[in-house]
Specification:
homodimer; 192 residues; mainly alpha; 65% helix; disordered C terminus; DNA-binding
DNA sequence: TACCGCATGTAAACGGTTACATGATTAC
DNA sequence: GTAATCATGTAACCGTTTACATGCGGTA
């Protein structure tokens, strides 16, 4: 099954919040399963195994009384370094939404500047796409078919909404209240 | 690999608009490459080969003068039937955004009722997700970490925007002007 | 000369899902 | 008694991307 790649970093990030079992990881993500496609156990467990092999996590088997025994994974120092390196490299210009969201979920592990950079990077990408959609929308001379027109409108509506959210959030980050929390959050977990 | 979005059906749908080569298909999709992940040639060409084997499309090799020869694919009657069956079955409740968008792009091949049903089905799914996000947002007692809060807000903003667009579009469909166009569009291509 | 756009194609690797197996405990 | 939740794991399969190969014509 080769080596799972991107999901491994994400798991690493989740483990910085607290040591967890594979089952826990899946459960903690379920509320966001519309945004992120929650990985199946068939990819989750093997990923944990390879992380363990690579020394990026450690296990502790906790024999639950009257429950099945659970394997609690904790991130190691080596794992923190790998995670840090991954978080610092910017998302590829044509990356999927998921790549953006994984880092957003782990936002607590970014410095204030890191979070701002992440949101601004996304902002640039969405703005570019919005522009591209607008251009194709104006350049199509009415004769284009219904489906394409609807889809273009859909894309524009979502891009605009996302830009609004990004601007809102970036604005809040400029205010002291949220900034303070960013500082607290990142110092509590992983200082970048 | 994500969820099987069945690129074959989508290609079939695009070919109803006009006969095209594999290269054309890719080019025609490029303007939407933010919404749909445009399939690579490595999946596009083999898909066309299997469609040809199954008799759902036909080829005509057009030797371009001073250009490389092009293979123009046309959908067959059998292909139309397969496409029709696919378009009529509703999208799975946990399907990806791509599954919704593929059918939206091919909206011209849906009857007026089919398009409305498609949008209403999506509406129900997004509304359900919005509700779920709101519930987790209210049930988290302030102590939840920054990343999760941001992601929740992001999801809610996008879900709300999508619901607005869906309601807008459904409202327009109720008006005669657009409805007439749906009728024209579907009769011109594939009567469902 | 070298590279880009056009145009088609193939093989290997990849990153995942599905389906299955196991087994204990609680709830209807 | 049987279904559901908890909990871990494996193997087969799947659709797709990546990287490569080919070749022609225009352009910097």
């Amino acid at each position: 099954m080769a080596k799972p790649a991107s999901i491994r970093h994400f798991i690493l990030g989740l483990l910085t919040q607290e040591p967890m079992s594979g089952y826990d990881i899946k459960r903690s993500l379920n509320s966001l399963n519309w945004l992120i496609e929650v990985p199946s156990f068939g990819s989750l467990y093997p990923a944990l195994h390879t992380l363990l092999e690579d020394g990026l996590v450690t296990v502790e088997v906790v024999p639950g009384q009257d429950r099945p025994p659970r394997k609690i994974y904790s991130i190691t120092e080596a794992g923190r370094q790998v995670l840090q390196a991954w978080m610092q490299q910017p998302v590829a210009p044509n990356a999927s939404l998921k790549a953006f969201l994984m880092r957003l979920i782990l936002a607590g592990h970014l410095s204030g500047d890191g979070l701002r950079a992440h949101l601004e990077g996304r902002r640039a990408q969405v703005a570019a796409q919005q522009l591209a959609l607008e251009q194709t929308a104006t350049s199509m001379n009415g004769s284009t078919n219904l489906g394409e027109r609807l889809t273009l409108g859909y894309g524009l509506a979502l891009a605009t909404a996302e830009l609004n959210w990004l601007d809102d959030t970036l604005g809040q980050l400029a205010q002291p209240s949220l900034s303070a929390e960013v500082a607290r959050s990142s110092s509590a977990a992983l200082v970048v």
